[in-house]
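pls read this protein:
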Amino acid sequence: MKKFVLLEVIFLVSCFKLPNQNEFDLSSLVEICRKMEIYEFGGVDKAQWPEMLIAIDPLVVRRDINGLYIVMDSYFIDESGFFCSYDEKLYNQNASHSYTLIGNNVYSFISKN
């Protein structure tokens, strides 16, 4: 039974991936981030998403004091996607969050909580 559970966990974790930056246009992501700066902190309702954002089909979009999260994949409480920083620094760097700079303050991120 333990072997089955271990294999199941390995399979499910391997399905969770960091977004491939080559699948998305950086200039479009930068434009999306710029347009989304006007919204209040918290989740942004899908009805308010610009067409460019709808086209990449994220699961969730939310803003906080540090930037915009565009969640492309989720498994329980773990997430991956894109993060647009409002500053040159990343303030959310810790053991459970990993960020990779794509360019122009846009990062791919993975959050394992």
